[in-house]
Specification:
Layout lengths: L3 H11 L4 E5 L19 E3 L9 H11 L4 E7 H6 L2 H8 L4 E7 L4 H9 L14 H8 L2 E5 L2 H6 L1 H5 L6 E6 L3
Parallel strand pairs: 1-2, 1-3, 3-4, 4-6, 5-6
Length: 174
């Protein structure tokens, strides 16, 4: 797996500078300081009530409103699981979106809180599902990322917005 901070630093370097960032809620929000935008109007956090999965629709709206910029959705695997149907919408509506799945095989934030309280975490853990083939079945261009080198190899996906939406399933350490 990849350290999420190192992953975010490399994404910051590889993504087009003219970008919008939309964050779902989850353990991965720690990467917020490592990804830059050109101004505050380029950043949206969908953290109302810290509800997981709320950002996918927000990101699609952002991408439709600003089609000349790259819109990047940062979402955890739990949030993606709650909004899998939006993969079909993004392809059908030809929404120029880069989905970065921060996949720690868990409701990561919840797992941390449960551990802090010495409570069982089994219900917060997921199997290691590769979401890239799932998204590819809907028509996304995809890559599974387990190393920074794999992320660098996937860089052309991040720069080409005319060939449909992109999903990177980034296997991060929890």
């Amino acid at each position: 797996t990849v350290d999420p901070r190192a992953l975010a630093l490399e994404l910051d370097r590889l993504l087009p500078p003219d970008r919008n960032l939309v964050y779902d809620s989850g353990n991965f929000v720690q990467v917020l300081p490592y990804l830059s935008v050109e101004g505050p109007d380029r950043l949206k956090t969908a953290w109302e009530f810290f509800s997981v999965g709320m950002a996918f629709g927000t990101a699609m709206g952002f991408a439709k409103a600003r089609p000349d910029s790259t819109t990047v959705l940062m979402i955890g695997d739990g949030g993606l699981l709650m909004t899998l149907g939006e993969l079909e919408t993004a392809v059908r509506e030809d929404i120029p979106l880069v989905v970065v799945v921060m996949n720690d095989c868990a409701y990561g934030a919840e797992a941390h809180y449960l551990r802090l309280e010495n409570m069982p975490v089994a219900q917060a853990l997921f199997p290691d599902v590769d979401y890239a083939p799932v998204a590819e079945a809907f028509g996304f261009r995809t890559a599974t990322i387990r190393t920074l080198e794999q992320l660098r190899e996937a860089a052309p996906l991040l720069r080409s917005r005319d060939d449909g939406p992109v999903l990177l399933d980034c296997k991060i350490n929890g």
